[in-house]
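Re-run with default settings, no changes from the original entry. Doing this only to confirm the output is reproducible before filing.
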Amino acid sequence: MSASARVLGSSEQVILVQAQHNLFDCTLGFIHAASDYVGRRALWQYIADLHCNNLCLIGDFNAMLGAHERLSSRAPNGVSCADFRGFIEREFLFEVEAVGAAFTWASRRSNIGLISSKLDRVLAHEGFIDHWNSVSATVLARAASDHHPLLLQFELGPTHIPRPFKFLTSWTLDSRFPEMVRSSWTRPLRASEPISLVVGKLKRLKSELRVWNKEVFGLIGYKITAAKQVLSEVQAQVYDLGDSEDLCNKEIEATVDLNQILTQEQFLYAQKNRASWLRDGDRNTAFFQRLHRATKAKPGIHAMLIDGQLISDQASIQTHIEQFYVQLFSASAGPADFGVVTDLITPSVTADFSREIIGIPGLDEIKAAVFSLSGDSALGPDGFDRN
């Protein structure tokens, strides 16, 4: 492993450091923005002129996204908030959600009392986030300053986290998928009970879908690249050799294949981000990819408040969580006396309605509840959706 860093440039509002890690180049910007939004506009433009795809900015931006980032009787400047939001959107920056205090700056003034605001944060390009296995930020306790310090951590080490099975809606858009499911489901399987037969077939289908996804369905990104290459070659032949019925049919076929794969990609990222409001129309793939990459910046628990102290050591966090659940599920409790509580509660439902809501639901009621679920809702414990 090799790493190096050098100062790339500086101004009154930012210090830029060019860093390299194993041939990966990135730019780190340490921000202390101007206190007025006119002065900050020069900073936004300066950063925009960098044209860097692997940029990470950390520090005091002296700006808020909206009124939700201030605790005070006075709202933040609307023009300043709009400028800051526009800068983030234009530069495709993602905020690394920080663990700790929600407001990073506080001041007590005699005329309006305590003011708390979120002025410090970490913003990064998707190229920077994608390079690291984990990116996290922690808001530390403040002492001498009226700002909370920010701790940025990123690591490249592998994490061996078992990946549960997840049914992907994009599979259903592949013409080979129905036959694959039919082949798996119709093969005989011995079971003592009907429900055991269903569970057994679902378990077998999950195993075969993993293999089919890897060996047949393939990676969406590679399929898109290959389909674009095929379409480009056909269109180049049309340009070089002239139009013909055979080339026209090939171009139509290549266009249909590419659009089908692009639709699969759209459904894949929409499902990963639980976008149940998706409707047919223009593709929103880039938007869903940005959402997905933003969530990658916080894939796990990076810090936890334990006995009043913010702990970031992963071994200590793991031990604390294990001990918590061991104590929770091994605690002995005697019979509880709810008489004191029930005596103070006035019944708000009739006895007949109470018996109705705690009764065992009928088959028609269960079927209606299951079939009313959205096909794009969260996956069940077995990894399948309602469809």
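Residues 275-282 have pLDDT under 50 and may be disordered. The radius of gyration is 28 Å.
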